[in-house]
Amino acid sequence: MSDRKEVEVLEESNGQRLDKFLAEKLEISRGKVQNLIKENLVEIKSSNEKITNKLSVKTGDIICIEIPKEEELTLKPEDIPVDVVYEDEDVIVVNKPQGMVVHIGAGNTSGTLVNALLHHTKGKLASDGGNTRPGIVHRIDKDTSGLLVVAKTNEAYLSLTKQFSDHSIDREYKSLVWGIPNPIEGRVETNINRDRIKRQQMTVCGKDVGKKAITNYETMGVFQNQDLPPISLMKFKLETGRTHQIRVHMQFKKNPLIGDPVYKGKKSNIITVKNKEVQDYLKALDGQMLHAYKLEFTHPTTGKRMKFKAPTPDHMQDLIDFLDEFSL
Q1: Active-site annotation holds for 141
Q2: From the CB of residue 51, how many other CB atoms can be counted at a distance below 10 Å?
Q3: Which of 183, 208, 205 is nearest to 195 (CA)?
Q4: Residue ranges in 215-313 assigned as alpha helix (H)
Q5: Residue 86: how many CB atoms within 10 A of its CB?
Q6: 314: left (phi > 0), else alpha (psi -120 to 50), else beta?
Q7: What is the pLDDT of residues 132-169, one digit of tens each?
Q8: pLDDT tens for residues 302-311?
Q9: Separation in Å, CA 214 to CA 188, 206, 322
Q10: What pairs with residue 295 in β-bridges?
Q11: E-strand spans in 169-242?
């Protein structure tokens, strides 16, 4: 089974590369478009030209695309260890490790936090979250560690989603970033939207597009010496919860997160480190140094304000200790 789409090339897109044009029009990644082209699933009506990624589209072209439908995802309980910080009949608070995806999706059909929680709770998660993400009211990235609250009942789900919508849930993060933010503490307020070219990424955009994103930050300490450019230990408090918000805002301030493979936090900055031992240590990092260490919300049933903190994970504390010793 597949979904067939037809797209007409208007004058403003004349001369644009085919893969870029389709990625923008269909709101999918250029990589996915390129795969469709390789599989001969893209054609241009009334054209004998060879279809390639670099082919330039022309005004009036009608481009036909066959998009295979993805297999229906099924969710199964899996006996995976999960760090439960708090649990009652309504909610469960967990400390997610770095490297674990929150729920199943394309490319992640097992081994997620939801798979683990279905086993742990014997299937008692709020159905209102949907078939693939029961009970999930907020997420953190795969390579971000830290606290999440998950709803076990539909009543709890509705209460928690409303608190997120009202911005009455408090969340704080710790991270290590390149450089020293200027000023060392403050507030970043921009709009964030999906990048027009790199569809898997988010980017700061104009006020007439995207959604408002607000991040408050504070510099807790700085590591540096003659062989090490400054690296700052940061604390963030979110007022909104946009995809990749902290990562995008710190790239915007030119202080990307250490280890971030997407938002310029890895290779482009490591070359500025003169000491090979430190270079090797940073190159070996797997994912961004970002930890959701504090979570505060109102209990859906009791009305009590619940406050939780998660200790700095080993992978991040080891780097802090290493930088602290090296920068003496």
Answers
A1: yes
A2: 16
A3: 205
A4: 245-252, 267-270, 276-283
A5: 13
A6: alpha
A7: 899 999 999 999 999 999 999 999 999 999 999 899 99
A8: 999 999 999 9
A9: 6, 14, 31
A10: 171, 308
A11: 170-178, 185-194, 202-205, 211-225, 228-238
